[in-house]
Amino acid sequence: MQHTPRDPKILLITPTADMSADRHGGRAKCLQRLVRMELPLPTTVALSFACVHAIAQGRMPDMDEIMRHFGEAPLLSVRPSSQDPDWGGPGAILNIGMTDLRHARMCDEVGEEAATSLYMRFIQAWAVHVARLDPDSFHIPDHPGAEDLRAALAAYEAEADEPFPQDPSLQLCEVLRSMARAWEGTTARLLRQAKGAPADAGLGLVVQQMALGVGQGECGSGVIQFVDSLTGQPQVTGRYLSQSQGREALKPGAGAIYLTRDHRGPSFEDLCPEAFAELLRMGALCRVKLREEMQIEFTLQEGRLHVLDAVRVQRSSRASVRIAVALAEDGVIPREEAVLRVEPQALSELLHRHVDPSAPRDLIVSGIAASPGAATGRIVFTATAAQASAARGEPCILVRRETTPEDIRGMHAAEGVLTIRGGITSHAAVIGRGLGLPCVVGASDLTIDRKKRQVIAPGGRRLSEGEVITLDGTSGEVLAGEPAMFEAVLDGAFRTLLDWADDFRDIGVRANADTPQDAQTARNFAAQGIGLCRTEHMFFEEGRIGMMREMIFAKDEAARRAVLERLLPMQRADFARLFEIMQGQPVCIRLFDPPLHEFLPSDRAGMRDLADGLAVSLSDVEARVTALTEYNPMLGMRGVRLGITVPEIYEMQARAIFEATVQASREGDPVVPEVMIPLVSAMREVELVKARVDAVAAQVRTQSGVEFDYRLGVMVETPRAALRAADIAQHAAFLSFGTNDLTQMTYGLSRDDAGRFMSTYVKNGVYEEDPFHSLDLDGVGELLRIGAERGRAGRPDVTLSICGEHGGSRSAIEFCRRQGFDYVSCSPFRVPVARLSAAQLALAARGMRDFRVTLPGY
Ligand code: PEP
Ligand code: MG
User: Fold this and answer.
1) From the CB of 744, is ligand 1 less than 6 Å away?
2) Could you give all domains of the chain from N- to C-terminal order, each with its CATH number?
3) pLDDT of residue 783
4) How far apart are CA 363 and CA 480, in angstroms?
5) What is the pLDDT of residue 491?
6) Cα 98 from chain centroid (whole Å)
7) What top-tier enzyme class does this entry carry (predicted)?
8) For residue 804, how far is its CA from the centre of ligand 1 (angstroms)?
9) Ligand 2 geometric centre to CA of 744 (Å)
10) Mutate which of 512, 530, 532 to test ligand 1's pocket (most atoms within 8 Å of Cβ)?
């Protein structure tokens, strides 16, 4: 290749060099910024993506063009420079240029052991990463001497069939080639694509003069950062390896001393006060100029400080929030940028409920605490069962010997995961943490009795499928039942960040909350009300299920009404409590939805119990259960169909809602309840229910002498309701799309049974994703679009929302924003994530870029 001094693909990093992260990678661009800040960076040359790609194809650059910047017999390092540092890249290779000659010279300058150690480390790196030889043959002893070096060179020659290369230029050339090829390999590509890199993401390389940190006077190397990686609080941390500490210091991990004098023993701060002060100054400068918390890699050579590199401080989710907020509060970045910088998923990791430390614990077994937070649910043993359970709205804990990638959908569906095998890096643990799912692994004292569908704990205690257990993913304990919990509460930086997010977002976020506990969590997370309260869950409570059964068995309307009279005060108290907790925020109460037979026992023993309780014959019970059995209950007599056929149930619920409204409004903020009718498919259904609910409202107003308003709305969860939304909206102040049932009915896909074949379908690309997990924007989305359009045509001021499980996901929020929906409603723990996602989407729509990948210098 012709010598081209101004080859733009090979650039000496100077303040004015024409460089960008898009062409040379984030590291190269960041190094240029350090040069511009006049930080003492050794000579560094950047190779562009195009140059590195050409190298991978076998077209080498002019090596003289690179080498000429480094003077005679240089020692060099090469580091990767991908566009986003999270995309990774091949490991750095140091000490390129070590040869027999150079080694001999260095023995005089820095001592034989130090020189030999450097040479041997280069031989090792070269052998493993460039020549791809077996690493076992290149072990470096603690105090390497001449004999060890000779052995290493001989081992290389024996394995590689050629002597160790002695030409620095050729060494560099081969290092560049191996790094370029490593980037283009299939494994590396798949790994970075999993981190969000595009298929054709480029790699740049930076070649830098080594600043060794060995020699006369105080020499050493270190890293320093100015915040704690775990908490994000300001704190100087890092380590320093002093050569004067002895030759041990040259070994990685040995001889390290603390940077500050807050610890026992010698500190860098005491050893080199001037360099320490200078590093503090540089850190502060980087923070402002690079608008980030950086970790600085440095060496000290004969008292002179060199900055080799600066990278974004590694940080926990908690620290990422704290750092973004602190940067904005200090005026380094605008608030918008702070909001854009935090990954919404990071919040969910921080928002876990935990077991009340003072609550009694019925310990079943202990394992490894693999993912924090506590989760309660019924035991299930397969991913399919977990999906079915979630589709029924029953929280579950997936118990497996160990999980495999096949289980991922089940893990998504479960509240928590318990495994018998595996450690902190096992599949279950890694995925659990990724999902923010409480997880206990390696509970090896448990066994699973597959036949009986039970887990057997130490001492022979057995727990069957369906029994409720609690995982404490923070302590690693597995507990029977549901101990008292403390809800996670946002505070400090989280609250600030979410307050800022609320200033930017343009769609409401409510919570699906059925119990006072859910409502309290929703309130803590600043949900703007309850978007869906599934009232049937209230009837499964102790003491009520019996009454429900009595009602179902009632001979006639009068008998039924008598039982409902007894249920009324309980429902009233339920609603009053929700109103009280929500303090005047809207609360949307869905009238009774499931088929009645769900309240009846399914086995003979249960029926016998019921017969005893009701003082009727077993055959009576059996006959009634048979009479209520439906071939397809999800499409049978449930929701509004029940409301019209057995109207006294809805009447009781309406009365409970309005009486609670009167009571709560007397005691606190005025309440405007929202009453929602489920499973509507025809306008007439709404007319009929509305007439009855209006009548109940009028009665309660008269009886109480208190005026109140309420809003009646419809849950759009059948395709016909979406298609007929214009008619339906005539009688509905709001339409809330129930995308769980709507997905079920749009696909003709049973929520309870789809788990059986879902993974095969996804694996074969039939569905891109499980549509119950990720909203199908094409099909179900089209119905939502049609429903929203027609709903608005029927009633221009109709309130539109979504309340299926999809409500908290980014793609659903994006869709709802675009369609001009008023709010999304999701489970309480997803509320903060939804608030942040909604803000980020609104900012993106305003043209703000995603700062997580476009940060200057990254
Ligand atoms: C729905 O169908 O989307 C919904 C929210 O209701 P449920 O899950 O209770 O059927
Ligand atoms: Mg539904």
Assistant:
1) no
2) 10-209 (3.30.1490.20), 220-315 (3.30.470.20), 356-486 (3.50.30.10), 506-845 (3.20.20.60)
3) 98
4) 6
5) 67
6) 45
7) transferase
8) 5
9) 9
10) 532
- Token pair recorded at residue 639: 């929701």
Distance CA 172, CA 57 (A): 17
- Expressed in angstroms and rounded, the spacing between residue 739 Cα and the centre of ligand 1 is 7
Edge-to-edge strands of the sheet including 447-449? 447-449, 454-456, 462-464
d(CA 142, CA 70): 31
> Which bound ligand lies closest to the C-alpha atom of 740?
1
Q: Nearest CA to 50 among 24, 83, 14?
A: 24
- pLDDT at residue 612 in the model: 87
- Is beta strand 468-472 parallel, antiparallel or unpaired with respect to 799-802? unpaired
Is ligand 1 within 6 A of the CB of residue 739?
A: yes
764 is in an annotated binding site: no
Distance in angstroms (rounded) separating the CA atoms of residues 714 and 590: 9
* Residue 165 DSSP code: P
Sign (positive or negative) of CA dihedral 465, 470, 473, 475: negative
Which tokens hold the place of 481? 């039942």
H helices present in 342-481, as ranges: 344-350, 383-391, 408-413, 427-435
pLDDT at 254: 44
List 462's β-bridge partners, or say none: 456
- Here the tokens at position 511 are 């919570």
267 forms beta bridges with 258
- Residue 221 pLDDT: 86
Q: How many helices (H) and strands (E) does the chain have?
A: 35, 31
C-alpha triplet 674, 677, 680: angle, nearest 5°: 145
Which residues, by Cβ under 5 Å, contact ligand 2, an ion?
Answer: 717, 738, 741
134 is in an annotated binding site: no
Written in H, E and C, the secondary structure of 54-119 is: HHHCCCCCCHHHHHHHHCCCCCEEEEEEECCHHHCCCCCEEEECCCHHHHHHHHHHHCHHHHHHHH
Q: Is the CB of 804 under 6 A from ligand 1?
A: yes
Could you give the CA distance from residue 322 to residue 587 in angstroms, rounded to a whole number?
33
Q: Whose CA is nearest to atom 6 of ligand 1?
A: 738
Question: Annotated binding residue at 402?
Answer: no
Q: What is the DSSP letter of 163?
A: P
The answer to the question of whether 590 is labelled as a binding residue is yes
The verdict on the CB of residue 393 being under 6 Å from ligand 1 is yes
Query: Could you tell me the sign of the dihedral formed by the alpha carbons of 62, 66, 70, 74, in that order?
Result: negative
The 10s digit of each residue's pLDDT in 82-107 is: 988 888 889 899 999 999 999 999 89
Counting ligand 1 atoms within 8 A of each CB, the residue from 514, 592, 680, 740 with the most, and so the one to mutate, is: 740
Query: Residue with structure tokens 């003979």?
Result: 604
- Answer whether 738 contacts ligand 1 (Cβ < 6 A): yes
Q: Is the CB of 8 under 6 A from ligand 1?
A: no
Residues of the chain with pLDDT under 50: 1-6, 246-254, 851-858
Q: Ligand 1, from 533, 591, 641, 717: best to mutate by most atoms within 8 Å of Cβ?
A: 717
What pLDDT does residue 427 have? 76
Give 409's Cβ-side CA count (13 Å radius): 24
Active site residues: 427, 803
Which alpha helices (H) appear in 748-803, and where do they start and end? 755-763, 779-794
398: which strand partners? 380, 417
Which residues are bridge partners to 298 per DSSP? 222, 307
Separation of CA 722 and ligand 2 centre (Å): 14
Q: Which one-letter amino acid corresponds to residue 640?
A: V
**Predicted pLDDT at 858:** 33
Q: 421: annotated binding-site residue? A: no
